[in-house]
């Protein structure tokens, strides 16, 4: 869905653009240079003092760069640029900056505002795992042309092991952090790929066991000391993927006013010129307003989609209960990280402010912010 949104917007309006630097408040990941160019930043997280920039050199051959109007990717909000012509790209971070926990070098290929990518960053942030970011242009997707799997996130491990699907990435790495006797390449065989055709006749790729950690009985008892903890975590991780994600786009673009305000925010942060800003704000907002209405119908949302968002978030808070700081107890579990990753793509937008003001999620959300920013999961490794 994210790629189709990008292609639809790319056809609406195009203009020459110069390199831009965008920093979203809240999520904090950096988008450097043109989004079509392969960019990388060494991170200990997607924001805060943990961000460490790695050197990047990009040479552009003759060709013209075009603006792909800002749009929501997989339910999040972002601004990217489509590319015409040929680009010669150089790949990635300096060897001397390759610091990684457990001996792993991690490279995350992402759309910055995709909620599935945000989930992965939340996991890496919390556990303090350094990683490089390669921002993928959602229209051309040149940065992942080498991959048969054409979605993001993709996580490359040590340059030769490819992990696809946000939940598979998280489950595989969590398994590795607990059981380092197995390599990541061994672990991913526990999540076999299955292809099928959906109700719209499109071939889709799914992964079995993706919410399971591949642990021994003793390890499982250590991670989930209380009865029902494992089942609860898996249930809410799947809920985040199957339901919560689909509430983001319709809420961000609920009205034309909110759509315009959202794109005005992006243009202001991106410091685009007058012509580029016009296309991004007006053409992009109009296109995504229409797309959000289609998503509303597809997922059978209420007339006021805020009500669906409020209910979902309050259901989540109620499931945690009053006696726990997180669903994981005193520390976040994988369900906490998944829900937080999805919700934080709305930061800086009216939908986020309304959610914080009209639900009971604020205290939990602020605790999650601190936990990921401070990499509190490092103590559990």
Mean pLDDT: 75
Radius of gyration: 20 Å
- Coarse structural class: alpha+beta
CATH topology: Glutathione S-transferase Yfyf (Class Pi), Chain A, domain 2
Q: Pick out the low-confidence regions.
A: 1-42, 44-101
Q: Helix share of residues?
A: 25-40%
Estimate nothing, just give the exact number of structural domains: 1
By CATH reckoning, the class would read Mainly Alpha
Apparent shape: globular
The biggest beta sheet reads:
5 strands, mixed
SSE order: HEEEEEEHEEEHHEEHHHHHHHHH
In angstroms, what separates the terminal alpha carbons?
36 Å
Strand order of the largest sheet: 3-7-6-8-9
Count every beta strand, where a strand is a DSSP E run of 2 or more residues: 11
**Count of alpha/pi helices:** 13
Percent range for β-strand residues: 5-15%
Identify the CATH architecture: Up-down Bundle
Short description:
This protein has 381 residues and is α+β, with helices and mostly antiparallel strands.
């Amino acid at each position: 869905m994210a790629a189709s949104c990008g292609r639809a917007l790319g056809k609406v309006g195009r203009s020459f653009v110069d390199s831009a630097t965008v920093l979203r408040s809240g999520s904090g990941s950096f988008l450097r240079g043109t989004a079509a160019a392969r960019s990388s930043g060494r991170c200990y997280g997607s924001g805060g003092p943990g961000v460490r920039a790695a050197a990047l050199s990009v040479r552009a051959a003759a060709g013209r760069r075009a603006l792909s109007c800002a749009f929501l990717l997989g339910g999040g909000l972002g601004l990217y640029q489509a590319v015409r012509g040929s680009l010669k790209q150089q790949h990635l971070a300096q060897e001397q900056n390759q610091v990684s926990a457990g001996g792993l070098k991690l490279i995350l290929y992402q759309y910055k505002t995709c909620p599935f990518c945000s989930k992965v960053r939340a996991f890496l942030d919390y556990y303090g795992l350094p990683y490089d970011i390669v921002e993928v242009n959602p229209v051309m997707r040149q940065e992942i042309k080498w991959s048969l799997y054409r979605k993001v996130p993709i996580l490359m491990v040590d340059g030769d092991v490819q992990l696809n699907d946000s939940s598979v990435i998280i489950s595989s790495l969590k398994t590795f952090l607990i059981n380092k006797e197995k390599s990541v390449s061994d672990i991913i065989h526990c999540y076999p790929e299955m292809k099928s055709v959906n109700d719209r006749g499109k071939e889709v790729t799914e992964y079995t066991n993706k919410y399971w950690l591949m642990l021994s009985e003793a390890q499982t008892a250590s991670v989930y000391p209380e009865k029902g903890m494992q089942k609860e975590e898996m249930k809410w991780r799947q809920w985040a993927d199957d339901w919560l994600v689909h509430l983001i786009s319709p809420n961000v673009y609920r009205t034309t006013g909110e759509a315009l305000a959202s794109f005005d925010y992006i243009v202001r942060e991106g410091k685009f010129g007058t012509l580029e800003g016009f296309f991004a704000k007006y053409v992009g907002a109009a296109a995504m307003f229409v797309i959000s209405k289609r998503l509303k119908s597809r997922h059978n949302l209420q007339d006021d989609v805020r009500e669906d968002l409020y209910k979902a978030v309050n259901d989540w808070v109620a499931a945690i209960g009053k006696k726990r700081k997180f669903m994981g107890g005193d520390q976040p579990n994988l369900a906490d990280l998944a829900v937080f990753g999805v919700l934080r793509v709305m930061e800086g937008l009216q939908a986020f402010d309304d959610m914080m003001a009209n639900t009971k999620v604020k205290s939990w959300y602020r605790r999650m912010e601190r936990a990921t920013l401070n990499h509190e999961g490092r103590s559990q490794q």
